[in-house]
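Reviewer comment 2.1 asked that we show a complete input and output for one of the modelled complexes. We chose the aspartic acid case, as it is the one discussed in the main text.
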Amino acid sequence: MKFGGTSVANKEAIQRAISIVRGRLDQRPVVVVSAMSKVTDSLYRIAGEAAAQHEAEIASLLDQLRNRHIDTASELLADSGHFLNEAISDINTICDYLEKVALSVCALGELSARSKAIIISQGEILSSTIIAHAMNAYGIDTEWLDARKMIISSGNPLNSDPIFSEINARVPGIIEKGLKHAQAVITQGFISSAIDGEPTVLGRGGSDYSASLIGMAINAEKIEIWTDVDGVRSADPRYIDNTLCLEQISFEEAAEMAHFGAKVLHPLTIEPAIMKNIPIFVLNSMNPDHKGTAILANSLIGEGAKAVSWKEDILMINVFSPKMINATGFVQKVFGVFSDNHISVDIISTSEANISVTVAGNQDISHLTKQLSEFAQVNVDNCKSQVSVIGKNVVNHDDVLQRIVNALNGYNVNMISQGASNINVSFVIERNQLNEIVNSIHKSLFQQ
Ligand code: ASP
Ligand code: MG
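Response of the prediction step:
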């Protein structure tokens, strides 16, 4: 059971989370928590201010952080005697350590990946510590477990890659031992460590991923992601009216939605669940009776359009070579350059003499275009957005494609791409028409 930042944001939220866990005690719950909402942002700021040697800013941010956690613990545990004293003492120990690390970084004016990983990890340590005390105080016998002993990762310490074999080897024993003495165990999302014990994290939003890694390792019956919306919707309701809540989607649809812009789950969350075919439920901690969304094996899911998602900020790169006509090896050469530059391509379309691709907008591609220009004409367009319609067999199902084409009538469409797995059809359109177009497509697919 993973509770995100807003589901543990304050006393009321934590009490709701605890009562949800209480309802699952017969299922031996493993609770995974994020930092309280906005805390990780503030830890990134502390790291930044420390690197910039802004001592006064650090002191003020640390004060706010300490006070917020002590206030929350005090509200939760006002009548709980020694639990409150223990919680406050733990919070102070964690915050003192954080302060020591931040001030050493500040003294040196040098922020290593290691120091940064330590600083940004403290939000989950704090939230899990407070919630563990509260669960015990409220009569749920709970053991606190250190995720850094379970989630082992490699690569960039600040955006690390979990090592599945290590996780599968370590997690079951630790959880089993914890649940021998307790009704529930609680651990942290997001944080991890390298095989040699160096601190690492899984990257922003990584708590979902932690939960599914643990679910995989213990062969969990199910993975519950508790958030602040009623499950996965047919589009982002902040931009589109009358979105639908999706009762069931497939692992592949969920992964595709996350990858193509929907802010539902951390994009890698699905992978460990697929390996063991463990259903994922996306549920609302503020509305726990709502059924939410079940993410299940593809064979259990019906065909047709499920969602419209988009990426506003993309770059469309056109590579043109008259020599491509009847030439072999051009495509390979072009994608070789992308791969050498570690730039991942989203959608691709080709014609006789032209290759068009889209890539994420927030990156420097000057080296890539320079290399491509050595053998082709290159044009980069930064005024485009990308829209995807996602669903099993989306293109061939009923009149889905016809409805999309109708919705796009009158708009300029620059690229069309249908994923080979037939689960995604994507379009590149003018960015200043994005809002109109996604509303038009959503309406045409879901409101007629
Ligand atoms: N606390 C981390 C973040 O804000 C991880 C998470 O919430 O999933 O990115
Ligand atoms: Mg989150």
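The mean pLDDT is 95. We note this here for comparison with the apo prediction described in Section 3.2.
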